[in-house]
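Forwarding the complex inputs:
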Amino acid sequence: GAVVSQHPSRVICKSGTSVKIECRSLDFQATTMFWYRQFPKKSLMLMATSNEGSKATYEQGVEKDKFLINHASLTLSTLTVTSAHPEDSSFYICSARDYRGAGELFFGEGSRLTVL
Amino acid sequence: QKEVEQNSGPLSVPEGAIASLNCTYSDRVSQSFFWYRQYSGKSPELIMSICSNGDKEDGRFTAQLNKASQYVSLLIRDSQPSDSATYLCAVNRNNDMRFGAGTRLTVKP
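Prediction (whole assembly, two chains):
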């Protein structure tokens, strides 16, 4: 299947700092990528849809100014958690759709954020 | 009614048995259906997709789709302890993918 790479896999930061997470599609171009958040033993929660060359589309209740998304190229989307606080600690996962097949979503490895 | 519904489990089966995971969806015009496996602390990985009514087999996995009943299932034959994970059902319509909350499967040695 297609390969989506996410970095960093783990990050620990102090409260008030900003953290950037990268998501790359390694062997295909992705005009659209998706960012999810998952708390322990809970289901995936779609945060936003990242669109190459245009603004991201955020789900209801997700703060645009808090979670900045940039999709500058067909293979890279970034999520920046600005002024992170302990309640932002979570598992963030990106995905991209591979239209060469049945339109499957392939996920990155995930990034575990811990805000102290 | 949730768009994609799964029994949260946990579903427990003995090693070597068949595990049956079920999923129902509300949008009748959904076009394609997917099963993902997620190990604890890891991201989901695609197991298989199915688009047409009937069965689709891939190794020990069989996906079954019944669009009239809005039902999709995943059978795992000869279950192994390594199959213990949460299984996510996903339903796609016009590039809008919706996930179920997942069913936790435990395969006991």
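The longest strand of chain B covers residues 85-93.
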